[in-house]
């Protein structure tokens, strides 16, 4: 077996070191080694976006990143989104618009939305739909998710 | 996933040494959006994965008087994220905007898309249309091949044992030039091309005649297909429905697709002509600086 390596990262603003074998994906390490189980496994092949995390400022599918690639990198996961005194505006919007049912895709959608709004504070509906094309939801039919992103963009917390 | 070793060399020489030291069992890793999935499904079984993203040569993205240098590991988002590059080499930017979703574009590279050598690769027709050359490094030194000569069959290319692609170099764009790539898919996003067409045109100063043009197709042959005859049908001709129809006919003629779940031979040949016409018109509009109607998912 290939030797495990020590990987030094920042996760949600905190320095984190972990051991990882080259064969382990970032998703596996987040969930199985670091107990950050908010990030979900859906398809494990880069189609569904359930495992989306923000890696060095960009949304990525953590199932398609080797954990050892995170060396020196900055990671944001769903666990880092809520504020200390309440939910993030995006989380509020998803609740307010009932933009989830089973909830498995939701952490991925929220991370993708966060990345979108950091880059484009007032996206059009088209831009929202294309930006979120890499996130699949089998429950909602997407319209409620799009409305949630629009609400979040307006900063409205109904 | 199956076990493998991982190295992340900081220099091209070290990468070549690692890849050529174990050529049958080593694979370069750029964005990993295909490689990691292929390892997981055991389509590939490398013993060593060589992460090439820390090598400066493979991260170059430079627009200059001589043209564009695009490092093999540069992810898609950096290309369309640079307004000057997206304007001058718009076919490549068009390709990068439709390869997978946002998460994939954060990681996937044009170099990786080329090296996978899939017949339906969305960026390769743009490279061919823009007359790009592929810079390869290996144990025998450096060499260059034209983008249209890189792929040799489905999943096959000219890379020899221990070689890797360093960068893709594009000549400077003409004063009155435009380019475009689009594909046909039965949905708006996140699909594999049924047919894809890339075109680059150069017009005369008046913008009324073609000086030259290059056209390449995806998903209609065992490799991305350079259709020299389609460009020849435009060169020296006034920009007219007749000239564009002749180029479209040449593209339709050159296409040798297969029947599969995405489309029939007849349909793919037909679409090759339709898309070629539309892509040329868009490239002409861009060359003229006109407002164009194209948007993703159209």
Report on this structure.
The complex is a heterodimer of chains A (158) and B (298). Chain A has 2 domains: 76 residues, Beta-grasp domain (Ubiquitin-like (UB roll)); 69 residues, DNA polymerase, domain 1. Chain A is of the alpha+beta class. Chain B is an alpha+beta fold and 298 residues long. Chain B has 3 domains: 47 residues, 2-Layer Sandwich (Uridine Diphospho-n-acetylenolpyruvylglucosamine Reductase, domain 2); 113 residues, Uridine Diphospho-n-acetylenolpyruvylglucosamine Reductase, domain 3; 112 residues, CO dehydrogenase flavoprotein, C-terminal domain (Enolase-like, domain 1), CATH 3.30.390.50. Helices cover 33% and strands 24% of the residues of chain B. In chain B, the strands form 4 sheets. Chain B has a 5-stranded antiparallel β-sheet with strand order 4-5-10-6-7. A 4-stranded antiparallel β-sheet of chain B has the order 11-12-13-14. Chain B has a 3-stranded parallel β-sheet with strand order 1-3-2, with helices on one face. The longest helix of chain B is centred in the last third of the chain and has 24 residues. The mean pLDDT of chain B is 96.
